[in-house]
Request: fold
Amino acid sequence: MARAMFEYTKTVLNKVSFDVTLFCKEVQKAMQRLLPYEIEELKIYIKSLILQNPELNQCLIYLKA
Reply:
């Protein structure tokens, strides 16, 4: 079940990556819902998205916690 949430989160983040505000909101939600080891995987995934969309780097502040 938890793995499904991780995959769902990646799908949602990919779909909202066109809008920085939406992306940041989804990152915040993900940080609350995912397990600690999934958050580490998510950080890697988000950094790869930022390489494609540099404007998303504003959301890195939510990954520090």
Observations:
- The helical segments are 2-15, 20-33, 36-52.
- The radius of gyration is 11 Å.
- The chain has a mean pLDDT of 92.
- The CA atoms of residues 1 and 7 lie 10 Å apart.
